[in-house]
Specification:
The structure holds two protein chains of two kinds. In chain A, a hairpin with a 2-residue loop joins strand 8 and strand 9. Helices cover about 50% and strands about 15% of the residues of chain A. Chain A contains 20 helices and twelve strands. About 5% of the residues of chain A have low confidence. Chain A is globular. Chain A starts with a helix and ends with a helix. In chain A, the strands form three sheets. In chain A, strands 1, 2, 3, 6, 7, 10, 11 and 12 form an eight-stranded mixed beta sheet that branches. A two-stranded antiparallel ribbon of chain A has the order 4-5. By secondary structure, chain A is an alpha/beta fold. Chain B is built from 14 helices and two strands, in the order αααββααααααααααα. Chain B starts with a helix and ends in a 5-residue tail after the last helix. The model of chain B has no long low-confidence stretch (mean pLDDT about 85). The chains are: A alpha/beta, B mainly alpha. Chains A and B meet through helix 4 and helix 19 of A and helix 13 of B.
Chain lengths: ~425, ~290
Amino acid sequence: MKWHVRFVTLCVAVVFLGAVGTAASGAQQPYKGTALRVVLANHPWADAIRPLIPEFEQATGIKVNAESYFEDQLTQKLTVEFASGTSTIDVFMQRPLQEAKQFHKNGWYTDLKKLIDDPRLTQADWDFADFFPAAVQAETVKGFVTGIPIVTEQEIIYYRKDLFEKDNIKVPTTLAELEAAAKHFHNPGKGMFGIVSRGQRSPAVTQFSSYLYSFGGAFDKDGKATLDTPEAIKAFTFYGDLLRKYGPPGVLNMSWPQALAIFAQGKAAMYTDASVFYSNLLDPAQSEVGDKVGFAVFPAGPAGARPYSIVSWGLSMSATSRHKEAAWEFIKWATSKETTLKTQNRQVPSARTSAWESEEGIKNFPAQLVSVIAQSGKIGLPYDRPNVIAVGQARDIIGSVIVTAIEGGDVAAAAKKANADYQALLDKEK
Amino acid sequence: MLRGGWLDRNLRYVFPLPALVFVFVMMVFPIAYTLRLSTTEWSMSSMAPPSWVGAANYASLILSDDRFSGAVWRTFYFTILAVILETLLGVSIALALNREGRGRNLVKTVFLLPMVATPVAVGMVWLLIYEPTIGVANYFLSLLGLPPLHWLASPRQALPSLVLVDVWQWTPMITLIVLAALTALPRDPFEAALVDGATPWQTVRHVTLPLLRPAIVAAMTLRAIDALKTFDIIYTMTQGGPGFSSETLNIYSFVLGFQYFQMGKASALLMIFFAIVLGSAIVLSWARRPVEA
């Protein structure tokens, strides 16, 4: 019965809102009646923007039909639809570091640069210059703007304040201290593990990148694969040993949802992953450790502290959209200063300078996290994965070394083989 | 004769036409298209059309791709282990259930449940069961006094763990087919065996099983074809990991196509896979023929 009542209420509400909308504004709604198909990821940003969409619909008369998918399914959905050439998708979320080069090469994006530069379509107060330059750079391929950055993230350490205080342990600032702290807290008999992080082949690569950079390694340099350099091998070995010795069993089958769950259930003393997940950890419905979570800048290795600091998601327009101007209205609205402030207040870190500089924009973030994000932003590197077209393939190549390291296998041999495979991939893309 | 003459004369072509069209559109065309695509290199781009590369995709898969050879081996390992276990269990259960008695239908219905569950949901549930820290699988092991296992998180245990899920889900199918065959068996041979004083075990061994052979082989064939193509439970539970330790041909072709955008190579793999499935089905159908006296 209940759904029945809800449905009727919904219908009444829709009719009512529609009537109000029509009455309120008529002349300023050039795209009234247009229906947009918007495809989102299951992501905190999508959760934040969904409740705001009715405001946009009311103001513009544009109907927004939003769908969402988990990130891998999202990529497949987009790929299959775009490849068919008859997609009805107008606006979609995408991961610029993962997809921008490939999607651009395949001709699936509308160039937003032209829309941004058109004063008839884009008012000055939308202010493209307000976005972090590195974020804009990640969304730009040879002058072609593939999307508007919406979410930024850095790799940080989440740690249990209560445990560190009780045992009087210093929050790690170096990787050596990180390992020592993991060792100190590791007590599997009592259901406590020293540290947790991702161990699944491909998902682990992005979180491993900060370890790699901090050891002085890189995925590649000047077109040459550098996965078997002494620095890289040290980094692989360190990450693998850390998780094998002080991580939970089953870490090899963990992406972020599983790793986060272990930490959220109070079963790990530390967790290294993207800053964007802090809201999941503070949410009492998902986490038992909400009031005990501390945040720290990624620790320094032999080459200093070098976490990634990236734009993880952007909002793009498909090349086949039949309502490009209306779609641009939606993207502009969703990435405007006002909306960004609202999504950031729902704890989604944005790529707008103005949102980070206003009191309003950071009021819902823990103060400790704001300072960690600010510091990480200064020292961070703009890539958390190889900067190539075939990102998926490159991640699998690198990830197989991580898996070998966690298993305790022959890292040097695995790195050597991965290096050859990765070099072949780099050569192919030249 | 004049009225409807053409139709009457061509009735034998007209009636099967819908079926022919269906087979052509839904089967022949996709296979032919895949075959064509397998000789090209294409990244699903709307701007660069597929470019012809001949047999290069096949050559690179067969000659120099160790993920491919690993996947072939794992596909057979998974299928053979799963089908053998399912047949042994399925036939035993069917023989045990094949007696009159109350509750027989209830038991049959309960057995059917794993089969009707959606594989993705099954995968999610088993993911929790196998969780090394909080999962119930290790709890049962501890009750039996056995050390905990890593299950899906261990490169060595992942594939057998997946086989176990397949066995749980598909043993009932073999049971059902064999049960149906059992009810259709003639009574005379059993009466003859009884008169000759055969023990129950001898009856099963020398009368029931030989009579059931065609049904068992048919069930095995169906299961083998399905098991070769298993995708959903593997993808939901391990995505082929840890490392590549549970990556079968189906998973690898999916990765090649939709994660690496190598449509040509993925198509080539699927053509090889198609040949493997077809070949296996033919081999099994030979086994189904009654032995010539």
